[in-house]
Amino acid sequence: MSVAENLARVREQLEKAARRAGRNPNEITLVAVSKTFPPENIVEAFEAGARAIGENRVEEAADKIPAVNARVGEGNLRWHLIGHLQRRKAREALRLFDVVQSVDTLRLAETLSRHAKEQGKILPILLQVNIGDDPNKFGFAPKPRDALLKDVEKIVALPGVRAEGLMTIGPLVPSAEDARPFFRDLRVLRDELAQRFPNANWRELSMGMTDDYAVAIEEGATVVRIGRAIFGQRA
User: For residue 87, with 0-12 CB atoms within 10 Å meaning exposed, 13-18 middle and 19 or more buried, which class applies?
Assistant: First the structure.
């Protein structure tokens, strides 16, 4: 199937999941994850209606984003960094991306804040939470809560960055249904942070990928990150 056909199928499934949960599908952002795929595939997705694109690596994005923007028009796509970001690449990430979903430490947030001030920007960020306590994944530990809350308090006060919610990469589980408790835990944490830090906007919950995005939507995801179901298997 073509990228356009795949995208249409994903949208249909997204809408069904939203309606099962009594939600408006228009409140859910579909981020098409294009890592390893060439600009031609991203342009095809754009022509089929995709407006948010996710990339994992700054180095790969540095070539692809200008190439795609030259073809579809600057500002017509919203670029999300969804992979781990090293602090030494923060300045370049700020230049390329509209949103950084993978802010996984206080130090990274502080580095982005400094570069954003230098560039006169306000960067929307999501805080990546290692909700499954997986030693192989990045992200803030949800426990102990006191340590997390101290970091979040500092982040929401930083100039140049604007915390807009949470992101997680679900654990590897046998079925999508097994991921539900982790997505629910992230929503509970988001709601707790919204109560404690009402001056920040906690509207976003980025969770769910190709294998489990329907369950994530049922549990409150406002952003889903879909790669394989749109672009196909990676080489």
Answer: middle
Residue 117 has pLDDT above 90, yes or no: yes
Q: Give the Cα separation of 170 and 176 in Å (integer).
A: 10
91: domain range?
Answer: 3-231
Query: Residue 164 belongs to a domain with what CATH number?
Result: 3.20.20.10
Residues 188, 143 contacting (CB under 8 angstroms):
no
Number of alpha helices (DSSP H) and beta strands (DSSP E) in the chain: 9, 8
**7 to each of 1, 48, 225, 226, how far by Cα in Å?**
10, 7, 12, 9
CA atoms within 13 A on the CB side of 31: 27
Quick one: pLDDT at residue 34? 97
User: What total of structural domains would you count in the chain?
Assistant: 1
Q: What residues have CB less than 8 Å from 70, skipping those under 6 apart?
A: none
Nearest C-alpha neighbor of 31 from the set 212, 168, 230 = 230
> If you average pLDDT over residues 108-114, what whole number do you get?
98
CB 177 within 8 A of CB 218: no
Name residues whose C-beta falls within 8 Å of residue 162's C-beta, 6 or more positions apart in sequence. 122, 123, 124, 125, 200, 201
